[in-house]
Amino acid sequence: MTITSPHLGSSEAWTDAKLLFALEEVVEKELNRHLKVTKDWMPHEYVPWSDGRNFPGFFEDGEAWDPEQSKVTDIGKIALVVNLLTEDNLPSYHHEIASLFGRNGAWGTWVHRWTAEEGRHGIVMRDYLLASRAVDPDKLEAFRMQHMSEGFESDNRHSMLHSVAYVAFQELATRISHRNTGHQSGDPVCDRMLARIAQDENLHMVFYRNLLGSAFELAPDLTMQAVRDVVVNFRMPGHGMPGFERMAAQMAIGGVYNLRIHHDDVLSPVIRFLKIMDIDGLGPEGQKAQEELGLFMNGLDSEARKFDERLAARAARIAARKG
């Protein structure tokens, strides 16, 4: 099916401020829908408190952490640390979206609601990691201090439209990362906790995806350019944490998040749902962005295929050595 949109997307016709105002009604609608379908939950109900015991320090009976105490797989430990450190930067994320979307009206209500829901994720993940002794608590705190002390700036902070486009994909990427981490963790308690977090992330993705769809109706050229920019330059929000490249590579090999998952499970579903490649009636800049988006997705698919082949060859070599 072809979507035809009027040519309303020139920079002369739309500014961030005008789009922000024009989308306010959509934000209110999506906020009301979100509040009807979301369910509040208690982070403490997902933590195995009975597994917990004192660490060394002020308590005389404190027991030092030992790797043997962890029930989580090696790849699970890496992914959990990456996911939690990402969540730790919530104050920076709140600052950036509050600066872009505002703190008043429906936009402001959403910003605060989103922040409150995201806050649960860091709470429950840290409590789980400490109570279950899944990772070294001293190293975890040192990583947190280093990561947050360096600050965070989004690649898309200069444009409301770019920010909306980014989070439409990023919320889905986070959902997939949490869900796959649970599957790979080796601990049913961890899997259940991350499945609950993933439900929140999916609802956040739906909010932003629907908002992005409305932006296409209002300003198709500008929105297409924003999507092109975001997809081509996409980075996860935790890219600035210490050792991220190494940990990301391990997560890719471990099947938590890699090029194939990024193409098939994150970018493609949003592009397909919004029928972005079928939008017609674009101006020259919008059409150019659409074509470049298509070329990038084809190239990413080829790169993912090469990654799959390397991963299969690696698995075959490991199997041969074990045999």
UniProtKB/TrEMBL annotation:
GO terms for biological process: fatty acid biosynthetic process. It comes from the Bacteria. GO terms for cellular component: cell surface; cytosol. InterPro entries: Fatty_acid_desaturase-2 (IPR005067), Ferritin-like_SF (IPR009078), RNR-like (IPR012348). The keyword Oxidoreductase applies. One of its GO terms (molecular function) is stearoyl-[ACP] desaturase activity. Binds 2 iron ions per subunit. The keyword Cytoplasm does not apply. Fe cation 2 binds at residues 118, 171, 201, 204. Fe cation 1 binds at residues 87, 118, 121, 201. Keywords: Fatty acid biosynthesis, Fatty acid metabolism, Iron, Lipid biosynthesis, Lipid metabolism, Metal-binding, Oxidoreductase. Its cofactor is Fe(2+); Fe cation. Pathway: Lipid metabolism; fatty acid metabolism. Its main location: other. Signal peptide: none annotated. It holds the Pfam family FA_desaturase_2. It is found in: Cell surface. Homodimer. May be a desaturase involved in mycobacterial fatty acid biosynthesis. Belongs to the fatty acid desaturase type 2 family. This is Putative acyl-[acyl-carrier-protein] desaturase DesA1.
